[in-house]
Amino acid sequence: MEQINEKSNYCLNCKTKPCSMKGCPLGNYIPQFIEQIKQGNYQKAYEVLSETTVLQGICGRICPHQKQCQGSCVRGIKGESVSIGELEAFVFDYMIEERDSLLNCYAQEIKKHENNKKVAVIGGGPAGLTASAFLARRGVKVTIYEKYSYLGGLLVHGIPEFRLPKEIVEKTISKILQLGIEVKYKQQLGKDIFIKDLERQYDAIFLSIGANQSIKMGIEGEKLDGVLGGNELLEYKLHPNYKGKTVAIVGGGNVAMDCARTIKRLGAKEVKVIYRRAREQMPAEDKEVEEAMQEGIKFLFQNNIVKILGKTKVEKIELIKTQLVQKESEARLVPVNIEGSNYSIEVDNVVMALGSEVEPYVKELGLKISRWGNIEINDKYQTSNPKIYAGGDLAGIKSTVAWAAHSGREAARNISEKINTN
Ligand code: SF4
């Protein structure tokens, strides 16, 4: 507790609130909740946070804080920024035992807006859970349709336990469901439930089924045995036996880091991350990269994979070195292959962790698809069907939990206005 007091007292309570206004995707009232911690009023701190988020314990742990709130903190200009993530997680953990804490925060509003409107939320990941909570707060009857027998989506199967304990996800979900949300499990869109039926039953639909298929590079050898998709590995956990094996991970984001660290823990002899830009350009959070390095994972920066070699299964990969150049049309440095710098290394598995795309059946839903292959939405998160809204990765929202939650919250606000919950 002493440490928490020290950390909260370090906050300057800046008038301009850059941590909140510039840094936080959810616009959390950061100095305000920290002020409450300073006064030892942890319940009030939780209430302040719950104004804008229902994922306090999760975002407090896994957000890329240095790129978001803490990266904009005034204290960080000359030294260490305020430990905003740690303080947010502390507030949630403190309130974890208060069974109805979130319900108590929203109870008056639920009563005030009481109505007979019904919304179906398809997919119970961060966007769907947040949308459900903020719709319920407006008195809407929410039903979540979830394809698995559990809620949480990538919070459960996409983020390893060492980064986000399952207990925190479970407690978060339980607080959200206490708002009176109904859940129907093992319901897959296009198989068990259909848009046409849901349209008849509900006043609006919010789609948040993610984009869970790993992107392929289209290089030679990608179909060989031993080439794995990063997203599928984390989601279905169909890991081969890595004992004594060398595994190459292609990509520089958090999925690449999670795969590398998980595979190392599963006994791989060597794990090498191949990234075509430099460390400073990696989308993964610095802390994740640092920890991966400490765990013995090797990084081949400014290296690009050219082909995968082997008869029926992966035996080697051919790499080429890159140099980074500034092109007028591009905001960030572009990696360009250095001709003649090709070399190959022996590996047993290749994990493609370059990003993800929507599953093929999404294109059959009858909704307009954007040129990036996601469901197209307008600035109100509305799809080409005015009764259907979408958020999270499915709608091409920046793939972080906080941005997914932001899309769920804002979609809920727009849905409430459209269906007139007063
Ligand atoms: Fe506190 Fe940093 Fe936000 Fe200023 S910018 S209010 S010091 S957390």
The spatial strand order of the largest sheet comes to 3-2-1-4-16
DSSP strand content: 15-25%
Q: Got a strand count?
A: 16
Rg for CA atoms? 22 Å
* Largest beta-sheet characterization: 5 strands, parallel
Inertia-based shape = globular
List low-pLDDT spans.
none
Mean pLDDT over the residues: 94
Secondary structure: helix percent: 25-40%
Structural class: alpha/beta
Named once each, the bound ligands are: iron/sulfur cluster
Q: Cα distance, first to last residue?
A: 42 Å
Count of DSSP-assigned helices: 16
In short, what is this structure?
The chain has 422 residues and is α/β, with parallel strands linked by helices. It has helices at 2-9, 18-23, 30-38, 42-50, 56-62, 75-78, 84-95, 101-113, 126-137, 154-157, 166-177, 195-201, 230-236, 254-265, 286-294, 401-419, and strands at 118-122, 141-145, 182-184, 204-207, 213-214, 227-229, 246-250, 270-275, 298-301, 303-309, 316-325, 334-337, 343-346, 349-352, 356-357, 388-390.
Keywords, separated by commas or semicolons:
single chain; 422 residues; alpha/beta; five-stranded parallel β-sheet; globular; binds iron/sulfur cluster
Topology:
Blueprint: H1 2-9, H2 18-23, H3 30-38, H4 42-50, H5 56-62, H6 75-78, H7 84-95, H8 101-113, E1 118-122, H9 126-137, E2 141-145, H10 154-157, H11 166-177, E3 182-184, H12 195-201, E4 204-207, E5 213-214, E6 227-229, H13 230-236, E7 246-250, H14 254-265, E8 270-275, H15 286-294, E9 298-301, E10 303-309, E11 316-325, E12 334-337, E13 343-346, E14 349-352, E15 356-357, E16 388-390, H16 401-419
Parallel strand pairs: 1-2, 1-4, 2-3, 4-16, 6-14, 7-8, 7-14, 8-9
Antiparallel strand pairs: 5-15, 10-11, 11-12, 11-13
Helix pairs in contact: 1-3, 3-4, 3-7, 4-7, 5-7, 9-16, 13-14
The chain binds iron/sulfur cluster (SF4).
